[in-house]
Amino acid sequence: MKQKILVTYASRFGSTEGVAQAIGKTLSEAGADVDVLPMSGVKDLSIYKSVVAGSAINGGAWLPEAMQFVRAHQAELKHKPFASFLVCMTLTMKNGEQYRSHVSSWLEPVRALVRPVSEGLFAGRLDIRKIPSFSDRLKFRLSVLFGVWKEGDHRDWDAIQKWARELKLLFTK
Length: 173
Known about the structure:
Layout: E1 4-10, H1 15-29, E2 33-38, E3 50-56, H2 64-72, H3 74-77, E4 82-88, H4 100-105, H5 108-113, E5 118-123, E6 125-126, H6 134-145, E7 152-153, H7 157-171
Parallel strand pairs: 1-2, 1-3, 3-4, 4-5
Antiparallel strand pairs: 6-7
Helix pairs in contact: 1-7
């Protein structure tokens, strides 16, 4: 019998959802029975042996609904293999890898509630047209103009798949 894995996410503009879908697909190709669901659609964790939870980053933090998900399910998550990931633009900056340890610190509130067996830190995608607020679009356009970020998809699909394959091994120990 396959062990069911939940991959759940909180996303603002679809980048984190895409990462979650890729993780779910990789786990499924490795033989796992996987559900990929937005956190808002998850009510019961009892049918899952393992949980992978990820969020977009806004202001150096997981999205509020992602933190609420972990708080609401903290007791159950402590008794299952649990992995967390984040998706952010900071890792796309010039020399973004030098910020990796700082970016990792943004998972500290999650770690304070549930200790992940693994953590994934992934660059995101910037599509300014999808940003609803005019002032935020303007800020991002200026950031692109000054070379802080580049518009486009910066997700490293090979790294995401590699991490997911490693999760499958961790979850079946």
